[in-house]
What does this fold into?
Amino acid sequence: MNPSFKTLPSLEELEAAAAIVYETMAPTPQYRWPLLEQRAGGEVWVKHENHAPTGAFKIRGGLVYLRALMQSEPGIEGIVTATRGNHGQSVALAARATGIPVLVIVPHNNAADKNAAMRALGAEVVEFGSDFQEAVEEAARISSSRGWHRIPTFHEKLICGVATYTLELLRAVPDLEAMYVPIGQGSGICGAIAAKNALSHKAEIIGVVSTGAPAYARSLAAGKVVSCPVTTELADGMACRTPVESALRIISDAGIRIVEVSDEQLADSIRILFATTHNVAEGAGAAATAALLADRKLKRKGARAVVLSGQNIDSAVLGRILSAR
It folds into this structure.
Protein backbone atom coordinates (compact mmCIF):
# COMPACT_ATOMS: atom_id res chain seq x y z
CA MET A 1 0.00 0.00 0.00
CA ASN A 2 2.23 2.75 -1.39
CA PRO A 3 1.31 6.37 -0.51
CA SER A 4 3.30 7.64 -3.50
CA PHE A 5 0.60 6.64 -5.97
CA LYS A 6 0.39 8.18 -9.43
CA THR A 7 -3.30 8.14 -10.27
CA LEU A 8 -6.44 9.03 -8.38
CA PRO A 9 -9.07 6.33 -7.81
CA SER A 10 -11.53 5.55 -10.58
CA LEU A 11 -15.32 5.67 -10.27
CA GLU A 12 -15.34 1.88 -9.89
CA GLU A 13 -12.88 2.13 -6.99
CA LEU A 14 -14.91 4.89 -5.36
CA GLU A 15 -18.09 2.84 -5.65
CA ALA A 16 -16.33 -0.11 -4.00
CA ALA A 17 -15.13 2.17 -1.20
CA ALA A 18 -18.66 3.52 -0.73
CA ALA A 19 -19.97 -0.02 -0.29
CA ILE A 20 -17.47 -0.54 2.55
CA VAL A 21 -18.37 2.78 4.17
CA TYR A 22 -22.11 2.06 4.01
CA GLU A 23 -21.69 -1.14 5.98
CA THR A 24 -21.08 1.12 8.99
CA MET A 25 -22.82 4.41 8.23
CA ALA A 26 -25.44 5.90 5.96
CA PRO A 27 -24.63 8.64 3.45
CA THR A 28 -24.53 12.00 5.20
CA PRO A 29 -27.11 14.63 4.21
CA GLN A 30 -26.61 17.86 2.31
CA TYR A 31 -29.05 20.57 3.23
CA ARG A 32 -29.83 24.16 2.27
CA TRP A 33 -30.35 26.48 5.23
CA PRO A 34 -32.26 29.71 4.45
CA LEU A 35 -30.57 31.84 7.11
CA LEU A 36 -27.12 30.79 5.90
CA GLU A 37 -28.14 31.51 2.30
CA GLN A 38 -29.23 35.01 3.33
CA ARG A 39 -25.73 35.66 4.65
CA ALA A 40 -24.04 34.13 1.62
CA GLY A 41 -26.28 35.80 -0.94
CA GLY A 42 -27.28 32.74 -2.90
CA GLU A 43 -27.83 28.99 -3.00
CA VAL A 44 -25.62 27.16 -0.50
CA TRP A 45 -25.52 23.47 0.34
CA VAL A 46 -23.95 22.23 3.57
CA LYS A 47 -22.47 18.73 3.39
CA HIS A 48 -22.95 17.44 6.91
CA GLU A 49 -19.94 15.25 7.60
CA ASN A 50 -20.47 16.22 11.24
CA HIS A 51 -23.32 13.67 11.13
CA ALA A 52 -20.88 10.76 10.61
CA PRO A 53 -20.47 8.28 13.51
CA THR A 54 -17.28 9.94 14.79
CA GLY A 55 -18.55 13.45 14.08
CA ALA A 56 -16.12 13.93 11.17
CA PHE A 57 -15.45 12.83 7.59
CA LYS A 58 -12.29 10.88 8.46
CA ILE A 59 -14.23 7.77 9.46
CA ARG A 60 -14.78 7.00 5.77
CA GLY A 61 -11.05 6.71 5.13
CA GLY A 62 -10.43 4.66 8.25
CA LEU A 63 -13.01 2.07 7.26
CA VAL A 64 -11.63 1.65 3.74
CA TYR A 65 -8.00 1.57 4.86
CA LEU A 66 -8.63 -1.01 7.59
CA ARG A 67 -10.52 -3.28 5.20
CA ALA A 68 -7.57 -3.26 2.79
CA LEU A 69 -5.11 -3.73 5.65
CA MET A 70 -6.92 -6.78 7.01
CA GLN A 71 -6.81 -8.34 3.57
CA SER A 72 -3.12 -7.60 2.92
CA GLU A 73 -1.69 -8.05 6.44
CA PRO A 74 -4.08 -10.26 8.44
CA GLY A 75 -1.49 -11.09 11.10
CA ILE A 76 -0.52 -7.61 12.28
CA GLU A 77 0.04 -7.25 16.03
CA GLY A 78 -0.85 -3.61 16.45
CA ILE A 79 -1.57 -0.28 14.77
CA VAL A 80 -0.01 3.10 15.47
CA THR A 81 -0.84 6.47 13.95
CA ALA A 82 -0.50 10.19 14.61
CA THR A 83 -3.46 12.53 14.72
CA ARG A 84 -5.00 15.72 16.04
CA GLY A 85 -8.13 13.68 16.76
CA ASN A 86 -10.49 12.90 13.89
CA HIS A 87 -8.15 10.57 12.01
CA GLY A 88 -7.40 8.77 15.28
CA GLN A 89 -11.09 8.30 16.00
CA SER A 90 -11.63 6.87 12.53
CA VAL A 91 -8.81 4.34 12.97
CA ALA A 92 -9.98 3.37 16.46
CA LEU A 93 -13.58 2.83 15.37
CA ALA A 94 -12.61 0.92 12.24
CA ALA A 95 -10.19 -1.32 14.16
CA ARG A 96 -12.44 -1.93 17.17
CA ALA A 97 -14.11 -5.00 15.70
CA THR A 98 -10.75 -6.60 14.85
CA GLY A 99 -9.43 -6.64 18.41
CA ILE A 100 -6.08 -5.25 17.21
CA PRO A 101 -4.60 -2.74 19.68
CA VAL A 102 -4.42 0.86 18.44
CA LEU A 103 -1.91 3.41 19.71
CA VAL A 104 -2.53 7.04 18.79
CA ILE A 105 0.13 9.73 19.15
CA VAL A 106 -1.11 13.29 19.62
CA PRO A 107 0.87 16.47 20.31
CA HIS A 108 0.85 17.92 23.81
CA ASN A 109 -2.15 20.11 24.59
CA ASN A 110 -4.29 18.32 22.02
CA ALA A 111 -8.05 18.83 22.31
CA ALA A 112 -9.10 17.04 25.50
CA ASP A 113 -12.50 16.01 24.16
CA LYS A 114 -10.93 14.43 21.08
CA ASN A 115 -8.48 12.51 23.28
CA ALA A 116 -11.36 11.27 25.41
CA ALA A 117 -13.33 10.19 22.34
CA MET A 118 -10.39 8.15 21.02
CA ARG A 119 -9.95 6.44 24.38
CA ALA A 120 -13.68 5.67 24.50
CA LEU A 121 -13.27 3.90 21.15
CA GLY A 122 -10.54 1.71 22.64
CA ALA A 123 -7.37 3.47 21.50
CA GLU A 124 -4.37 4.13 23.72
CA VAL A 125 -3.59 7.85 23.46
CA VAL A 126 -0.06 9.14 24.10
CA GLU A 127 0.94 12.81 23.98
CA PHE A 128 4.27 13.60 22.36
CA GLY A 129 5.85 16.67 20.80
CA SER A 130 4.81 20.27 20.36
CA ASP A 131 2.97 19.85 17.05
CA PHE A 132 1.51 17.30 14.67
CA GLN A 133 4.74 16.80 12.74
CA GLU A 134 6.59 15.72 15.89
CA ALA A 135 3.75 13.32 16.69
CA VAL A 136 4.10 11.82 13.20
CA GLU A 137 7.83 11.29 13.75
CA GLU A 138 7.18 9.58 17.09
CA ALA A 139 4.57 7.31 15.51
CA ALA A 140 7.14 6.25 12.92
CA ARG A 141 9.70 5.51 15.66
CA ILE A 142 7.24 3.40 17.66
CA SER A 143 6.15 1.55 14.54
CA SER A 144 9.76 0.64 13.82
CA SER A 145 10.60 -0.40 17.39
CA ARG A 146 7.45 -2.47 18.01
CA GLY A 147 6.94 -3.80 14.52
CA TRP A 148 3.41 -2.39 14.48
CA HIS A 149 1.72 -1.18 11.32
CA ARG A 150 1.76 2.61 11.01
CA ILE A 151 -1.23 4.18 9.32
CA PRO A 152 -0.26 7.43 7.59
CA THR A 153 -2.57 10.44 7.50
CA PHE A 154 -2.39 10.53 3.70
CA HIS A 155 -2.79 7.41 1.59
CA GLU A 156 -4.64 6.26 -1.52
CA LYS A 157 -7.04 4.14 0.54
CA LEU A 158 -7.82 7.07 2.84
CA ILE A 159 -8.48 9.23 -0.21
CA CYS A 160 -10.69 6.53 -1.71
CA GLY A 161 -12.77 6.45 1.48
CA VAL A 162 -13.18 10.16 2.10
CA ALA A 163 -13.90 10.80 -1.59
CA THR A 164 -17.26 9.12 -1.05
CA TYR A 165 -18.72 12.22 0.63
CA THR A 166 -18.00 14.31 -2.47
CA LEU A 167 -19.43 11.54 -4.63
CA GLU A 168 -22.66 11.81 -2.63
CA LEU A 169 -22.72 15.60 -2.83
CA LEU A 170 -22.04 15.92 -6.55
CA ARG A 171 -24.68 13.33 -7.37
CA ALA A 172 -27.20 15.02 -5.09
CA VAL A 173 -26.50 18.49 -6.55
CA PRO A 174 -25.65 17.92 -10.23
CA ASP A 175 -25.68 21.66 -11.00
CA LEU A 176 -23.21 22.55 -8.23
CA GLU A 177 -20.78 25.23 -9.39
CA ALA A 178 -18.30 25.46 -6.52
CA MET A 179 -17.33 23.46 -3.44
CA TYR A 180 -15.15 24.65 -0.55
CA VAL A 181 -13.00 21.99 1.15
CA PRO A 182 -10.67 22.46 4.17
CA ILE A 183 -7.10 21.20 3.82
CA GLY A 184 -5.25 19.49 6.65
CA GLN A 185 -2.97 16.73 5.36
CA GLY A 186 -4.80 16.71 2.05
CA SER A 187 -6.96 13.58 1.91
CA GLY A 188 -10.25 15.50 1.88
CA ILE A 189 -9.45 17.80 -1.03
CA CYS A 190 -7.72 15.04 -3.00
CA GLY A 191 -10.82 12.93 -2.48
CA ALA A 192 -12.97 15.80 -3.75
CA ILE A 193 -10.78 16.09 -6.85
CA ALA A 194 -11.00 12.33 -7.39
CA ALA A 195 -14.81 12.30 -7.17
CA LYS A 196 -15.13 15.32 -9.46
CA ASN A 197 -12.88 13.69 -12.05
CA ALA A 198 -14.62 10.32 -11.78
CA LEU A 199 -18.01 11.92 -12.44
CA SER A 200 -16.70 14.45 -14.99
CA HIS A 201 -18.48 17.10 -12.91
CA LYS A 202 -18.13 20.82 -13.65
CA ALA A 203 -17.91 22.03 -10.03
CA GLU A 204 -14.86 24.08 -9.06
CA ILE A 205 -13.07 22.65 -6.01
CA ILE A 206 -11.68 25.42 -3.79
CA GLY A 207 -9.23 24.61 -1.01
CA VAL A 208 -9.21 26.31 2.39
CA VAL A 209 -6.26 26.69 4.76
CA SER A 210 -5.71 28.58 7.98
CA THR A 211 -3.61 31.75 7.94
CA GLY A 212 -1.97 30.16 10.97
CA ALA A 213 -1.12 27.01 8.98
CA PRO A 214 -0.50 28.21 5.41
CA ALA A 215 1.96 25.51 4.28
CA TYR A 216 -0.18 24.19 1.43
CA ALA A 217 -0.89 27.68 0.10
CA ARG A 218 2.79 28.66 0.27
CA SER A 219 3.87 25.36 -1.26
CA LEU A 220 1.40 25.66 -4.11
CA ALA A 221 2.66 29.16 -4.87
CA ALA A 222 6.30 28.01 -4.73
CA GLY A 223 5.74 24.86 -6.76
CA LYS A 224 7.45 22.72 -4.10
CA VAL A 225 6.99 21.58 -0.52
CA VAL A 226 7.49 24.49 1.88
CA SER A 227 7.26 24.06 5.66
CA CYS A 228 5.61 26.82 7.69
CA PRO A 229 5.19 27.29 11.45
CA VAL A 230 1.74 26.50 12.80
CA THR A 231 0.24 29.26 14.93
CA THR A 232 -3.50 28.60 14.66
CA GLU A 233 -5.17 27.96 18.00
CA LEU A 234 -8.54 26.99 16.62
CA ALA A 235 -7.99 25.01 13.40
CA ASP A 236 -6.28 21.93 14.83
CA GLY A 237 -7.67 19.82 11.99
CA MET A 238 -5.80 22.05 9.53
CA ALA A 239 -2.59 22.43 11.55
CA CYS A 240 -0.18 21.16 8.88
CA ARG A 241 3.46 22.25 9.14
CA THR A 242 4.81 20.30 6.16
CA PRO A 243 2.60 19.29 3.21
CA VAL A 244 2.53 15.78 1.79
CA GLU A 245 4.35 15.85 -1.55
CA SER A 246 1.86 13.52 -3.26
CA ALA A 247 -1.07 15.61 -2.08
CA LEU A 248 0.60 18.82 -3.22
CA ARG A 249 1.13 17.35 -6.68
CA ILE A 250 -2.53 16.31 -6.97
CA ILE A 251 -3.73 19.74 -5.83
CA SER A 252 -1.34 21.51 -8.19
CA ASP A 253 -2.22 19.32 -11.18
CA ALA A 254 -5.91 20.05 -10.58
CA GLY A 255 -5.31 23.82 -10.65
CA ILE A 256 -6.88 24.29 -7.23
CA ARG A 257 -7.30 27.81 -5.88
CA ILE A 258 -6.80 28.23 -2.13
CA VAL A 259 -8.51 30.67 0.25
CA GLU A 260 -6.91 31.49 3.60
CA VAL A 261 -9.02 32.15 6.71
CA SER A 262 -8.00 33.43 10.14
CA ASP A 263 -8.92 32.10 13.57
CA GLU A 264 -11.21 35.11 13.96
CA GLN A 265 -13.05 34.18 10.78
CA LEU A 266 -13.31 30.57 11.95
CA ALA A 267 -14.77 31.62 15.29
CA ASP A 268 -17.27 33.86 13.51
CA SER A 269 -18.28 31.02 11.19
CA ILE A 270 -18.72 28.63 14.13
CA ARG A 271 -21.18 31.15 15.55
CA ILE A 272 -22.87 31.63 12.17
CA LEU A 273 -23.30 27.89 11.59
CA PHE A 274 -24.73 27.45 15.07
CA ALA A 275 -27.16 30.33 14.60
CA THR A 276 -28.26 29.50 11.04
CA THR A 277 -28.22 25.68 11.08
CA HIS A 278 -28.07 24.75 14.79
CA ASN A 279 -25.07 22.55 14.00
CA VAL A 280 -21.81 22.54 15.93
CA ALA A 281 -18.59 22.91 13.95
CA GLU A 282 -14.98 22.59 15.05
CA GLY A 283 -12.46 25.07 13.66
CA ALA A 284 -11.64 23.07 10.54
CA GLY A 285 -15.30 22.20 10.17
CA ALA A 286 -16.20 25.89 9.90
CA ALA A 287 -13.35 26.69 7.50
CA ALA A 288 -15.30 26.09 4.29
CA THR A 289 -18.09 28.38 5.46
CA ALA A 290 -15.57 31.05 6.46
CA ALA A 291 -13.98 30.84 3.00
CA LEU A 292 -17.33 31.05 1.22
CA LEU A 293 -18.30 34.18 3.16
CA ALA A 294 -14.89 35.79 2.58
CA ASP A 295 -14.26 34.75 -1.03
CA ARG A 296 -14.29 37.77 -3.32
CA LYS A 297 -12.83 35.98 -6.36
CA LEU A 298 -15.78 33.70 -7.02
CA LYS A 299 -17.84 35.67 -9.52
CA ARG A 300 -20.56 33.12 -10.06
CA LYS A 301 -23.61 33.06 -7.81
CA GLY A 302 -24.88 29.60 -8.71
CA ALA A 303 -25.13 26.65 -6.35
CA ARG A 304 -22.22 26.48 -3.93
CA ALA A 305 -21.38 23.96 -1.21
CA VAL A 306 -19.41 23.97 2.01
CA VAL A 307 -18.15 20.87 3.78
CA LEU A 308 -18.88 20.90 7.50
CA SER A 309 -16.08 18.39 7.91
CA GLY A 310 -16.24 17.91 11.67
CA GLN A 311 -17.95 18.92 14.90
CA ASN A 312 -15.41 17.74 17.47
CA ILE A 313 -14.60 20.96 19.25
CA ASP A 314 -13.85 21.02 22.99
CA SER A 315 -16.96 22.08 24.88
CA ALA A 316 -15.07 24.79 26.79
CA VAL A 317 -13.76 26.29 23.55
CA LEU A 318 -17.22 26.21 21.99
CA GLY A 319 -18.67 27.91 25.04
CA ARG A 320 -16.15 30.74 24.83
CA ILE A 321 -16.77 31.25 21.12
CA LEU A 322 -20.56 31.27 21.40
CA SER A 323 -20.52 33.60 24.39
CA ALA A 324 -18.33 36.11 22.54
CA ARG A 325 -21.08 37.20 20.17
In short: Residues 11-57+156-323 form a domain with the Rossmann fold fold (CATH 3.40.50.1100). The longest strand covers residues 204-210. The beta strands are 30-32, 44-48, 79-82, 102-106, 124-127, 149-151, 178-182, 204-210, 257-261, 304-308. The radius of gyration is 18 Å.
